[in-house]
Amino acid sequence: MGKKSEKSMEEVIREDGRYPPHAYAFLHEGLARAVEQIHGAKQASGFQHVTGTQLCESLRDLALEKWGMLAPAVLKRWNILATIDFGNMVYLLIDNGLMGKTPEDSIEDFRDVYDFAAAFEAGEEFDLKE
Q1: Burial zone of 40 (CB within 10 Å; 0-12 exposed, 13-18 middle, 19+ buried)
Q2: What is each CA distance from 11 to 15, 87, 104, 116, in whole angstroms?
Q3: How many CA atoms lie within 13 A of 9 on its CB side?
Q4: How many CB atoms sit inside 10 A of residue 29's CB?
Q5: Cα separation values, 40 from 36, 48, 49, Å
Q6: Residue pair 15/93 in contact by the 8 Å Cβ criterion
Q7: Backbone dihedral region of 17: left (phi > 0), alpha (psi from -120 to 50 degrees) or beta?
Q8: Tens of pLDDT along 52-82?
């Protein structure tokens, strides 16, 4: 993890201003879901890594479960228009010492993971970037 922020997560999010706090709550819910799917329900304490693609897929599934076909509208209201927006959120937290990453991780892992329109309208049939 990077240097620990002297600011709270809420302060970091509000100062950045690109995405509202509700979007970060959704991000954390999706992250917990991805960690459970990848590492299992019984997680050891400590750093449980998931890739940008895995997180984006989890967030897509969670959004569809929570809001169905309204998912794109909810995400748009939060200024989330593409998978890179999830990366921007993650890297804001990483840069402020509120989240961790491995040396192999990059914000580019979140770029164009899937097309929002296709992913949310096609149901289960959509292409993830390989």
Answers
A1: exposed
A2: 6, 19, 28, 29
A3: 16
A4: 14
A5: 5, 10, 12
A6: no
A7: left
A8: 999 999 999 999 999 998 999 999 999 999 9
